[in-house]
Amino acid sequence: LWFFLPIDQAYTPALLWIFIILVPLLAVGSLRIMGANGTAACCAGFLALGVNQPYFLWLLHYGTSGACLSSACILPVSACLFRVMMLGRREWWLAVILITSSCFCLMWPPAAVMILALALAFLANWRRWSWPKFRFLFLCAAVILLLQMRRVLVILIEMGVFNPRDLAMATPGGHGFSTDMLFAGWQTLVDYLRMGHPLILFPGIGGV
């Protein structure tokens, strides 16, 4: 659409196509990667149409459509990791999907926080660890790091990581971690859960 139409004419149809067709298809494909049947995959696709109220707030009000699309790529990333860890599968196409979806997910750098959350699930299933799985995931991670190296270096340079003086100057007000920050973060999380889709929230917790 960007090549054939002016941006002001292509923007709205592109949003419709991405978030009404593409994102639900990502959910459907993710469930299929995990080995779920067609019924479960279709349910995931329908639920992906409306995650929660803040999702539409950030998408339509603030216009952060790129962040919403990148964060949706966490679906195939988590599905691929599930297939490796729980099902013990290591197909070549699985590596392609894992690398591609991870790169798209990291196009919005804060999405790395969501990927780090998957590490907790990885640690919780330590009994399923094996060297073939480690080798497969390590190779995929190495390719992802290679593809994202330039982006990572730019972010680190802008943060002043390679210059401690710049890093100290970039710290706003020198505020450190406190229990008040932890409590405020927990309260924000609870508020977002209250605005979440009930079908996703309660069956999701039950499924876990």
Description:
- With 208 residues, the protein is mainly alpha-helical.
- The protein contains eleven helices and no strands.
- It has helices at 7-33, 38-47, 53-61, 65-72, 74-85, 92-105, 111-124, 131-159, 164-170, 179-194, 198-207.
- The protein is globular.
Features:
single chain, 208 residues, mainly alpha, 11 helices
Provide a compact summary of the structure.
The chain has 208 residues and is mostly helical.
- The total of helices stands at 11
Mean pLDDT: 80
Class computed from helices, strands and strand pairing: mainly alpha
Largest sheet: none
Q: Tell me the series of helices and strands, N- to C-terminal.
A: HHHHHHHHHHH
| Outline | globular
Helix content: over 70%
Secondary structure: elements and pairs:
Layout: H1 7-33, H2 38-47, H3 53-61, H4 65-72, H5 74-85, H6 92-105, H7 111-124, H8 131-159, H9 164-170, H10 179-194, H11 198-207
Helix pairs in contact: 1-2, 1-5, 5-6, 5-7, 6-8
